[in-house]
Amino acid sequence: MPDFLVFDRVTKRFGELTAVDAVSLSVQKGEFFSLLGPSGCGKTTLLRMLGGFETPDSGRIFLDGRDITGLPPNLRRVHTIFQNYALFPNMTVWDNIAFSLQVARYPKSETRKAVEGMLELIKMTDHAFKYPSQISGGQKQRVAIARALVDRPQVLLLDEPLAALDLKLRQHMLLELDIIHDQVGITFVYVTHDQGEAMSLSDRIAVMNQGRIEQLDPPAKIYEAPRSGFVAAFIGDTNFFGGTVTSVEGDYCTLAVNGFADILCFNDKGISAGSPVHLSVRPEKIRVTPTPPPPEKGSRINVFRCKVTDVVYQGIYTKFWLTSGAHRLSAIKPHSRFLLDQATITWGDDVYCWWHPDDGYMLEQFTAADAHLVQMPPAGYSLPKPAAPNGEPAP
Known about the structure:
The protein has two domains: about 5-225, Rossmann fold (3-Layer(aba) Sandwich), CATH 3.40.50.300; about 230-375, CATH 2.40.50.100. Helix content is about 20%, strand content about 30%. The protein has eight helices and 20 strands. The protein has helices at about 45-50, 95-105, 110-120, 135-150, 165-185, 195-200, 220-225, 230-235; strands spanning about 5-15, 15-25, 30-35, 60-65, 65, 80, 155-160, 185-190, 205-210, 210-215, 240-250, 250-255, 265, 275-280, 285-290, 300-315, 315-325, 325-335, 350-355, 360. A six-stranded mixed beta sheet has the order 6-7-8-3-9-10, with helices on both faces. Strands 13-12-11-14-20 form a five-stranded antiparallel beta sheet. Strands 15-19-16-17-18 form a five-stranded antiparallel beta sheet, with no helix packed on it. It is elongated.
C-alpha cells in the first residue's frame, strides 16, 4: 500500500529552540496513528504543520501524493479537533455540525442528509437543537468530531482531545473514538501525552522526545520491545539493569550487574561477551512470593532475595517496591481472586522475586537521563507499616 501521508525530513525552529528535528514518517490511509510524548517533545508542532497552522523551516509534507507544505489551512482537506471543542455557543448542535457545509454552499438536501448521518453516528439525534451550554463535556466532544467529519476530510487531527474530560468520561470517549474511526474509515492523527490513550486506540505510535522520533511501531511492539531507555520508561513502568555480558550460551547470556546478582537474559541482539548492556524488565513480569519458586523442569529462571520497602494497593493489582543489594525495583501482582484469610506480603517482609530470562528486553539505546523516568512510589499511599511488638509503629 502506498504511503498516504508523508513527512520528509521536516524541521521547525522557534528562535534557538528546535521543536521538530528532521522528522521523517509515513501514515497509511485509514490508519489511526498517534504522536506520543511528554510536553515540549514536538508532537503538537508536527500536528500544526500538518494542519497548515505552522510552516516548516525545511522539509516537505505530502498528502495523497500532493505537496501541501505551503498550502494554507483552508486549501487542505485536513480538519483539527482541539481540547476546548471550539463550538459556536450561539448555534445549536445541528447548526454547529452543518456550519462548514453551509459555508461551502452545499445544497440543503445534501446538508440535511449529511448532518442527520453525523447525528446518528455520534448518538446525538435527540439533542440536535440544544446549545453547547446545554450538553455535557463528552457530548460537546462528539459534536466537535461530527463537525470535523461532516464534509469527509482526508485526515482528522486530534490534539489532546480528551484532556478536559474526567477519567470515566475519558475512558468512554476512547471507545467512542475507536468506533467512529472504524465506521468512517478516515485517517486519524492523534496527539497525546497519555500512554494509555495511545496504546488503546492506535494502529501505530510514534514516540517523540526532544523533537525526534525515538520509535515508530505498533503498540505491542513499543511496549514489549522498546528500542531505548526513554521509550521503556515512558510507556508504562520498567526496571533497568546495566552491566556487562560475561558469558553467552546459545540464545541466552549472563549479565553481571554492579550491586546486584548476575542476570540470565535472552540474547536477541546477538551480543558477545564483554559488551555493555542495559536490560528492561516490566514490573508485571516479576513474581513476588514469600517462598522460593517451585523448580521448573528444563527451565532456568532468575531468582533474587529482596526486602519489601513499599506496597501500594490498586484494586486490580498490588504494586511492590523492593530492594536487593544496591538496586531498587518494582513488581506488580495482579488480583485474580481475594481471600480475606490469606496472608499478604507487606512492608518490611523478606521475599523472593523472580522472572524468566525471556521476560527481560535488551535496549539498543540508553542514557543516564532515562533512569530518572522510572516511576517511584507516591508519598502517602503505602499500606500501614506493621506495628512493633510493644504496639508502637515500626520505625
